[in-house]
Structures are given as structure tokens and as C-alpha cells.
Design goal:
The structure holds 2 protein chains of 2 kinds. By secondary structure, chain A is α+β, with helices and mostly antiparallel strands. Chain A has 14 helices and 16 strands. Chain A is globular, with a radius of gyration of 22 Å. By secondary structure, chain B is of the alpha/beta class. Chain B is built from 8 helices and 15 strands. A 7-stranded mixed β-sheet of chain B has the order 10-9-8-7-11-12-15, sandwiched between helices. Chain B has a 6-stranded antiparallel β-sheet with strand order 4-3-6-1-2-5. In chain B, strands 13-14 form a two-stranded antiparallel ribbon. The two termini of chain B are 31 Å apart. The mean pLDDT of chain B is 92. The chains are: A alpha+beta, B alpha/beta.
């Protein structure tokens, strides 16, 4: 984290006991608050009324195909890295209805858009990688030509309270993608957890107004140093990495590499990686009619380039083999995105490694594929 | 611009059975305000939906200057198109669109145009031929090369005969399995291309059909030394949203529904014909 970066924060300090004040202010302003809660043995976004619901002293041990919650001796609230889902499901719903049509008595058909009901929602404890992913999803779903009305409605209702990562999981590699572990942008309120309390700083004017309602003390020099040390520690804990974007583009030169088949033999084509990836955006549409035949609706649900029908053209399937599906996912995520969105689609969260049932590690796959330089292997 | 997310109702004004498995619908938006702002380019497509059945992408084949209606030529290929084939004048469909990038008609002005089609995939290019002939003085010679497997697969046969009598129009048809009544070539459409004498500085080619046929045609055109920038093709993929959001139609970094379906060959050369793309 650069000195300029820190100087721009100008954080205020809050004692550990004061955290409920933030939730109270948010509730007072009409926000529903979502925060990290241990549910089904993982950290998940759930409605949080009081700080008592937050996970005290919980860390997530992550590895290829492994996620275990463990005790964290310093009783921190944000020592866990992340759960299976980023912000994606809260904006790009896993399943929703896009429009409905109804046959009227006069034979006319009435077509109506169905928009989600939203309420102002503050999400508490969002990580830098997830905010970077959110910026990418925004670029996709809020394109100037065709902004998605469903995504947009939910997006406008969200307030983000980000938190610096003080620890890294073994699967994290955000330092190499440039997306963490300290908060970059995209949050309304920034937050860092220290042993003795919390630092808060403004990320947007909306967030600034909320901070103004908290009783914060000016942060001491020692506290500012601790804030830097916390994220420095997290960065130092990372041992996985992705190469730079110009190297990643060379994956398109490796389409015939033998390593695709090696992965294809291990990969179950289950689609877990695309479901937990905070930037994957594919969806399929499904037209369904009611039993009485009087009305119908167009639904969409998350799709995955690992599903058999993703590449289907009538009876024909472009990617029958699992190796081709994995190749599609990896080349698109790391190379194709650069042309489409101006950067790679990976933010280094490592979820695809953690939640892969057979522990396929994309950083290892990339290393194997790009090993040996530029020539087509 | 029309909302890409929501269909608008259109009523069928006319229905023509082009061949046993191919029919055309002439459509008009129920809401005249919608019809008034609906604009498209040859090569673009709409998403057509039928109440209670589903939605499919279909290219627009009418002339963009015909502002009171628009036409779709549809081949029965699955459940939705099968149901659409039973529609009659007065029936309604839902329309989202138009989507995608069409043919480079501006770049084609003043050029000789080589139109190569194969199989039944000729609808997107028939709109181009009609477009060219209606604005005859703005274009050079027109070479129409169409290949079919069986003689009976050729739709609009009379139209090809009419076109062949027009000045500066060279129609060459090839059938793999010609019958007795077939006055044109036997063989593959790609074999016709090698007979062309192209003005390389003043020619643009437009291809549509099965990818293997287009690849063979591209190889022939490149053999004739036609520049890659002068070779254009229309691609087909799994398209569901129509505007580059659902992700299914991607070929490498391109969204076929948004960046295409018409591409310059150089844009997709790395992926065309590559397994898995």
C-alpha cells in the first residue's frame, strides 16, 4: 500500500466495543444490514441485526478442494478471508424472471417486465477482491447500450462497507492481479480491523455522511502503521500468483497444449468454479408457461461454460469434451476478458481453487500452459 | 432505440411457404410508435418469440428502407420454429431487436460484390442481394454463388433466374446432387469461386453458410489474392440474450450476437474452424 494511498484515507478510530454503533446508524437510516455469518460451516452473507451475529475468532483454512473454519486466537471479527460467494448473487440473481406475458380475453398478449423488489441494503465486511469483481460485473451488466434493469435495480440499493484483509488464505493471489489485499475502490465506507479496534474512512459521499454520525477519534500514527502492517502481512502470506496480463493473452497461443487434456481428465465439469467465481456472468434463458396455458414467463438462471448445453447449436455441441470446456473457461477468463473488458476477468480470490471438488488450481494450470515460452506447444 | 430486454408484439401481415421446410413471415409491430423507430441493417437479427412456446434468433431479410414492415425467412429446425410454421396472417409474435452488426454495406459501395452462400443458410445474404439490386448504381458487378446439396434445396429459384438476367449480375449455382432440370453446375459452390476473375482493388466478398463451406470459400478467395479485409462472413452460435450478455455465443473474445453475426474474416481467423470455438 503506497503512502499516498494511506494519506488519502484519513481514517478515524473506533474502539472494539463501538461497532454496534455503525449497525445502529445504518438501521436508523433505513438500511437492511448483511454481514458475514457462519452458516453451513462457511462464511455467508446473512442479515445481521447486532454485532453478536458476527464470527468472533473465526478463520477459514482454504486449499485446493478444502474449506474449514478454524479458531483465530486474537478473536478478530474479520480474520476469515471469504466464503463461497462474493457479492454476485446479491446483484445477478441465480434465478429470476425477466418478463411475463399473458393471453387476454380479446386475444391480445400483454407483456410485462418483472423487476425485483429492493430495499436499501448495507453489506458489511466486503473484501477488496470482491469489490474489484463487482466493478467488472458492473461493466458487463451496466453497459451503456443495454444496462440490465434487474441488476441495476439491486445495484442502486446497495451500500458497501469494505474491510482490508489482514490475513490471506492459502488460495488467495490478489497481490498478483492487483486487486488486494487492501481496499482499492468501489466501497462507500472503508474499514480496517486492528487488535484494539477499527479504523474507518470515507469511500463515497454517501459513506462519508454515515461516518460523520459515528464518534471516531483521529487515528494515531501507531494505528496508521498497524493498518499498513496488517495488509502487508496478508500480502506476504500469499504464495500463489498469476502472471501479468500480456503473458495471460498468450493462452490463446496454447490451444493445442497437452495440459488441457490432463485437466480434462480430472475436471468433473461440475461448474462449481463458475458458480463461485465473482465475475462469471453466463446465464441461460428458459421460457416456461403455466399449466392453464394463459400466461408464460421468461426466466434466466446462472449457466456455466461447463454445462453440456452451453455450446449447443441445435443437435450439435461445440464443446463435448471436458478439456474443451475448461479451455473455454480459462482462456475466456484470463485472455478473452482483456479484449472484452480491458482487463483479465480474474481478481485473485482463489474461490475456484477452494471450491473445486478435485482441487484444480488455475494458477498451476496457467503455469503449466505458459511454461516453455511463446511457441505453440 | 428499443428496449432489448422486452419483446414487443408484432402481427403477421403475410405468410409465404418458400419450400416444404422454409417459410417467410411479413411482420408489423402492433404499436405504430414502435414500428416507426424500428431500424435495422441487412445482416442483423431479431429474437422472435411465440406465446407459450419460446424464443429464437432469426435474421431480418427485408429491405431496411421498407419502414412499414419487416420480413423473416425461417427454416423449421426445432420446437419453436416448428410451432411458428403453423402461424397465419393475423397471428402475433413477440420481437426483441434488432441485434448485432450487419453486412458492411457502406464499405461495399462502389465495389464489385461476391456473394457466396451454401446449404440453406442463404437468407441473410438474400437480403443483401435485394439491397444491392435496389441500389444498383451504387455497386459494381455482383457475383452470386450459391451451393446446395440437392436441387430441391434451392429456394427462390425463380428469383435467381430473374437476377441472372440483370445487367452486371453473374449468377452461378452448384448442386451436389442436381436433377435433370438443373441448368447450372454440378459440384460444390467453392469450386465456382476459382473461376472468378476478380478486381482485387475493387471487390468485397460476403459469405454465409456452414462453416466448413465458408472456410473452403475463404481459402479459394485467398488463393485468388483477395485481401482478408475484403472477406466478410456471417456466423451462427447459441444466442439467447442477443446483446452480448448471456455469454453463450462467444467465439474467442468475440460475442457473435453483438460483435457479429457479420465479421471481417481477419477478426475471427484465429478461431474459425478451431475445435471447441
Amino acid at each position: 500500500m503506497s503512502a499516498q494511498h494511506i494519506a488519502a484515507r484519513r481514517p478515524g478510530f473506533m474502539q472494539r466495543e463501538g461497532l454496534q454503533d455503525l449497525l445502529d446508524v445504518l438501521h436508523h437510516l433505513g438500511y437492511r444490514t448483511l454481514g458475514p455469518v457462519v452458516d453451513e460451516e462457511a462464511i455467508q452473507w446473512r442479515e445481521v441485526e447486532t454485532v453478536d451475529a458476527l464470527p468472533v475468532g473465526v478463520q477459514a483454512r482454504q486449499g485446493p478442494g478444502e474449506y474449514r473454519l478454524e479458531e483465530q486466537p486474537e478473536n478478530r471479527l474479520f480474520a476469515w478471508n471469504h466464503g463461497p460467494q462474493a457479492i454476485k448473487p446479491l446483484l445477478f440473481s441465480a434465478e429470476e424472471t425477466l418478463w411475463r406475458e399473458r393471453l387476454m380475453v380479446d386475444g391480445q398478449i400483454e407483456i410485462k417486465q418483472t423487476l425485483p423488489e429492493v430495499e436499501p441494503t448495507a453489506i458489511f465486511g466486503v473484501r477488496a477482491c470482491d469489490l474489484a469483481a463487482l466493478a467488472l460485473q458492473d461493466r458487463h451488466f451496466l453497459s451503456p447500450q443495454h444496462p440490465d434493469p434487474h441488476y441495476k435495480a439491486r445495484r442502486e440499493a446497495l451500500l458497501f462497507i469494505g474491510v482490508d484483509c489482514a490475513f490471506s488464505a492459502a488460495t488467495c493471489f490478489c497481490t498478483s492481479t492487483g486487486d488486494g489485499p487492501s481496499l482499492g475502490e468501489g466501497f462507500d465506507i472503508g474499514m480496517a480491523e486492528l487488535d484494539e479496534g477499527y479504523l474507518f474512512w470515507e469511500g463515497s459521499s454517501k459513506g462519508g455522511e454515515i461516518i460523520d454520525r459515528l464518534s471516531l477519534e483521529p487515528a494515531s500514527e501507531a494505528q496508521l502503521n498497524s493498518m499498513i502492517q496488517e495488509t502487508d502481512r496478508a500480502a506476504a502470506q500469499q504464495h500463489r500468483f498469476l502472471p501479468g496480463e500480456s503473458e495471460l493473452k498468450q493462452l490463446y497461443d496454447k490451444l493445442n497444449h497437452g495440459h488441457w487434456d490432463e485437466i480434462g481428465e480430472r475436471c468433473l465439469s461440475c461448474g462449481n468454479c463458475t458458480a463461485v467465481c465473482p465475475t462469471c456472468f453466463c446465464y441461460s434463458t428458459d421460457y416456461q408457461r403455466t399449466l392453464d396455458g394463459r400466461s408464460a414467463e421468461m426466466k434466466r438462471q446462472w449457466d456455466s461454460c461447463f454445462s453440456p448445453t452451453h455450446s449447443s447449436m441445435g443437435q450439435f455441441m461445440l464443446r463435448r469434451e471436458t478439456a474443451l470446456r475448461y479451455r473455454q473457461w480459462l482462456t475466456h477468463k484470463l485472455a478473452g476478458w482483456q479484449e472484452q473488458f480491458g482487463r483479465s476477468g480474474c481478481v485473485g480470490c482463489g474461490r475456484c481453487i477452494t471450491w473445486c471438488p478435485v482441487g484444480i488450481d488455475l494458477t498451476q494450470a496457467v503455469a503449466a500452459l505458459l511454461d516453455g515460452g511463446l511457441a505453440d506447444a | 432505440m428499443l428496449d432489448a430486454h422486452l419483446p414487443h408484439s408484432a402481427v403477421i401481415d403475410r405468410r409465404v411457404q418458400e419450400s416444404p421446410g422454409i417459410f417467410s413471415l411479413r411482420l408489423q409491430y402492433v404499436d405504430t410508435n414502435v414500428q416507426d423507430i424500428f431500424e435495422f441493417q441487412p445482416g442483423q437479427f431479431n429474437m422472435l418469440s411465440l406465446f407459450g412456446v419460446g424464443e429464437v434468433p432469426i435474421s431480418i431479410v427485408s429491405d431496411p428502407d421498407d419502414s412499414h414492415f419487416f420480413d423473416h425467412t425461417i427454416r423449421v429446425a426445432g420446437r419453436v420454429t416448428e410451432a411458428m410454421s403453423r402461424l397465419q396472417p393475423g397471428d402475433r409474435v413477440g420481437i426483441r431487436g434488432p441485434f448485432g452488426r450487419g453486412w458492411p454495406m457502406v464499405q461495399a459501395e462502389g465495389q464489385d460484390v461476391v456473394v457466396v452462400t451454401g446449404g440453406l443458410g442463404c437468407a441473410p445474404l438474400v437480403s443483401v442481394i435485394r439491397y444491392l439490386l435496389r441500389r444498383r448504381d451504387r455497386f459494381g458487378d455482383i457475383h452470386i454463388m450459391q451451393g446446395v446439396k440437392h436441387e430441391d434445396d434451392l429456394i427462390w429459384r425463380r428469383q435467381y433466374e430473374t437476377w441472372s438476367r440483370e445487367h452486371g449480375v453473374n449468377v452461378q449455382l452448384a448442386a451436389d446432387m442436381p436433377g435433370k432440370e438443373w441448368p447450372w453446375q454440378q459440384g460444390l459452390v467453392t469450386e465456382l469461386i476459382s473461376t472468378l476473375d476478380l478486381n482485387l482493388e475493387k471487390t468485397i466478398s460476403m459469405l454465409c453458410g456452414p462453416e466448413l463451406m465458408m472456410l473452403a470459400a475463404i481459402a479459394q478467395l485467398r488463393d485468388l489474392k483477395l485481401d482478408d479485409q475484403r472477406i466478410w462472413l456471417s456466423m451462427e452460435r447459441n444466442m439467447q440474450c442477443g446483446f452480448g450478455q448471456c455469454g453463450h455465443c462467444q467465439v474467442g473474445p468475440k460475442f457473435v450476437c453483438k460483435d457479429g453475426p457479420v465479421f471481417c474474416y481477419s477478426e475471427v481467423a484465429d478461431f474459425l474452424g478451431a475445435k471447441g470455438f
